Amino acid sequence: MEIEKYKRMYDLEDSYWWFVAKHKIVRSVIRYFYGEDTAGAYALDIGCGTGAFLDKMEQMDMKAYGLDMSREAVDFCRSRRKSRLLVGNVEGELPFRDNAFDIVTSLDVIEHVDDYRRVIEEACRVLRPGGILVITVPAFQFLWNQHDEVHHHKRRFVSKDIKAAIESTGDLRTLKLSYYNFFLFFVVCLFRILKKTFRWNGKRKDDFISVPRLVNGLLCRIFSMESLFLKHLDFPFGVSIIAVARKGLR
Questions:
Q1: Which ranges constitute the DSSP H helices of the chain?
Q2: Looking at the predicted structure, is the pLDDT value of residue 198 above 90?
Q3: How crowded is residue 217: how many other Cβ atoms within 10 Å of its Cβ?
Q4: CA–CA separation, 50 and 36 (whole Å)
Q5: What is the number of other CB atoms lying within 10 angstroms of the CB of residue 202?
Q6: Can you tell me the distance from the alpha carbon of 111 to that of 43, in angstroms, rounded to the nearest whole number?
Q7: pLDDT for position 158
Q8: Per residue in 44-68, pLDDT tens?
Q9: Are 146 and 205 in contact (CB under 8 A)?
Q10: SS3 content of the chain, % helix, strand, coil (to 5)
């Protein structure tokens, strides 16, 4: 992505409803499937971007590492934190030894790469037996719009794509596979249809539009409420997909 996109993400990640709610949901599933006691757990965020979720990992007392392909993104991370950051190719061999991490996350990353199965295979390799992998991706190709183009996405997914990639490793077992951003699904669909129809001002823009503070708070509460449901059920559709997998014990 262009540096101005990273700057915008950096400015939004700690306050914009979509980021805040997504991070709350991911933290919730980590605590549910890994356990409440995450203190001292070695964690890796593949495609860490500008580092907001690394901050969340550290708030959970994890020993967090971040890897991103973009030096500009990692520079933004360094303004938040001081160590355990690497620039590297997320599609190649990760610069970590086998079985190094208790928790690996890859949040809205593999839609950007050519070989997403390779990313999952490498995540599995660096994950310790008994450790968990958390992946989020955008869902449904019919939702493709300017946002995907602006952020250089290569695809959107259906759940069976992620399940097949996880199970093809041979070592990962799927614990949770669900669509999410379910409650706002039809609102997002309508927004994207209108955006495609009218091509606002003829410019390509992402979906992170400015909203009043009260609306931002309301959208955040609606979206983040899904963290309560995802512990016990899988949503049949949504704007995105979340998957949790555990590496088998040998």
A1: 3-12, 17-33, 52-59, 71-80, 116-126, 146-150, 159-167, 185-198, 213-224, 226-229
A2: no
A3: 14
A4: 26
A5: 6
A6: 21
A7: 98
A8: 999 999 999 999 999 999 999 999 9
A9: yes
A10: 45, 20, 35
Phi, psi of 172 (to 5 degrees): -105, 140
CB 143 within 8 A of CB 156: yes
Hey, what are 79's tokens? 């303004």
CA 235, CA 207: separation in Å to the nearest integer? 23
**Domains within the chain, CATH numbers bracketed:** 3-247 (3.40.50.150)
CA atoms within 13 Å, Cβ hemisphere of 189 = 13
The phi and psi torsions of 117 (rounded to 5 degrees) equal: -65, -35
Q: Is 47 helix (H, G, I), strand (E, B) or coil?
A: coil
C-alpha 89: how far from its chain's center? 17
Running DSSP on this structure, what letter comes out for residue 157?
A: B
Distances 129 to 37, 61, 92, 137 between C-alpha atoms, Å: 17, 21, 21, 24
* Residue that the structure tokens 């061999």 belong to: 93
Say how far apart CA 209 and CA 194 lie, in whole Å: 14
**How far apart (Å, rounded) are the C-alpha atoms in residues 200 and 189?**
16
